[in-house]
Amino acid sequence: AKAQIGVTGLAVMGRNLARNLARNGFRVALHNRSQARTDSLVEEFGSEGDFVPSTDLPGFVESLEQPRKIIVMVKAGEPTDAVIDELVPLLDEGDIVVDAGNAHFADTRRRETALREKGLHFVGSGVSGGEEGALNGPSIMPGGSPESYAALEPMLTKISAHVNGEPCCVHVGPDGAGHFVKMLHNGIEYADMQLIAEAYDLLRHVLGLSPAELADVFRDWNTGDLESFLIEITAEVLSQTDPTTGGAFVDVVLDQAEQKGTGRWTVQSALDLGIPVSGMAEAVFARSLSGDVVRRTAAAGVLPGPAEAKADVDRETFIEDVRHALYASKLVAYAQGFDAIRAASDEYDWDIDLGAMATIWRGGCIIRARFLDRIKEAYDRNADLPSLLVDDYFKEAVSNAQDSWRRVVATAATVGVPAPGFSAALSYYDGLRAERLPAALIQGLRDLFGAHTYKRVDREGTFHLEWSGDRSETQS
Ligand code: 6PG
Fold first, then answer.
1. What is the dihedral of CA 263, 269, 272, 276, to 10 degrees?
2. From the CA of 280, how far away is ligand 1's center (Å)?
3. Where do the annotations place NADP(+) binding (predicted)?
């Protein structure tokens, strides 16, 4: 019998998605450019389900029932285009190509148009959860036509993670919507990790706690509002000892964070949309700084820090303050992330249901967290919420946290420990709530040096002051 769905690209993510589909009772066609991967999958896991391996792409396409459903799981960028180009001539009208990699949503929009013109469906789908998620239930964010989603839905919702019986998979919207939302997920992932790293760094420097003691702090935090996968694995990494030295694992790891690009894309896209995503931007910049060996080497031990690098704080109070700072800063990062999704949805006519995005991130993905339920509830209360931060629940959460948050940012500055995530989040919060911003002065400056005009608080219209003349005001 023919296969119900196929996977081409059997590196670890593709292989685990194929196994997940097979374990859930679907007959899965397999293909990989080098056949060894296909063979080893069948050899090692063939007993898990019904696999239909092929040695070449025409055979793979031939082994699928129509309309064909093909998941492409190869590297983003050119490798994805290469596979699509090879695949398309072999397909028939109505067939569905799913790109489950971390593609840039602009590429997905381009590919969707190209395939649509050929009578094919292209589904750019975010898949989160790493290797483990792909195998046991990821969070799935598919974009594309409603018809293609209808055809894929039974399979995708079956293999996805579930929370309270609900699948962590929903049709996000047309063309690039799914990959945009996955990109934002990764941007938030960057911000979350940066904030966690800052909390760790501050507690370690200010209180002198050991990694093992810090693991206990995070383990404790994971029983409250901060409960999430990333906090859980932070405790795991911090409690790990290095097999070679027997010391803390975290102390033998080179302190240069790498990145594959999705965080950077998020910030670039948000800049284009005009949405401040300062939490994510600081997270990307902090990774860049960590990897900038040339300048770090030139400055370390050369640029002076504060004379008094110890803060006079009570241990339990400071731990609690940092917990609040982390939670409040995290809320800001999510608020900014959802603003970016809303802006893109408006820009590209995606009609994304923001509450549903919070729902599908509750399980399976890297940023899965207890408080995503709260985000869903906030959008249930008001689908047009201008910012998550003004929802009653979040407003309350931030106001409970803010004294701590301010103390932590002040302490970080005093002791000279970098906390770009915490401080950017706090500045955003203060900027957002300000009744009047110094942007008025910026407008004045722009008008003086470039006649860029300004608007007034008391009258409609656009104005200019004759700065080099008699300083009278003209209206344009
Ligand atoms: C996921 C992850 C996944 C990947 C990140 C890592 O949702 O499963 O986000 O997509 O682990 O892209 O990104 P960096 O290598 O850029 O940190």
1. -50
2. 14
3. 9-14, 32-34, 74-76, 102
Give the pair of three-digit tokens for residue 261: 């690009």
Ligand 1, pocket-test mutation among 102, 194, 233, most atoms within 8 A of CB? 102
Output the CA angle 30-181-188, nearest 5 degrees.
Answer: 110
pTM, 2 dp: 0.96
Structure tokens at 8: 């081409």
Q: CB under 8 Å to 297, separation ≥6 — which residues?
A: none
Q: Is the CB of 263 under 6 A from ligand 1?
A: yes
453's torsion region: left (phi>0), alpha (psi -120 to 50) or beta?
left
The DSSP secondary structure of 152-215, one letter per residue, reads HHHHHHHHS-EETTEESB---BSTTHHHHHHHHHHHHHHHHHHHHHHHHHHHHHHH---HHHHH
Per residue of the chain (476 residues), give pLDDT as tens.
999 999 999 999 999 999 999 999 999 999 999 999 999 999 999 999 999 999 999 999 999 999 999 999 999 999 999 999 999 999 999 999 999 999 999 999 999 999 999 999 999 999 999 999 999 999 999 999 999 999 999 999 999 999 999 999 999 999 999 999 999 999 999 999 999 999 999 999 999 999 999 999 999 999 999 999 999 999 999 999 999 999 999 999 999 999 999 999 999 999 999 999 999 999 999 999 999 999 999 999 999 999 877 788 999 999 999 999 999 999 999 999 999 999 999 999 999 999 999 999 999 999 999 899 999 999 999 999 999 999 999 999 999 999 999 999 999 999 999 999 999 999 999 999 999 999 999 999 999 999 999 999 999 999 999 999 999 999 98
Ligand-binding annotation for 185, yes or no, is yes
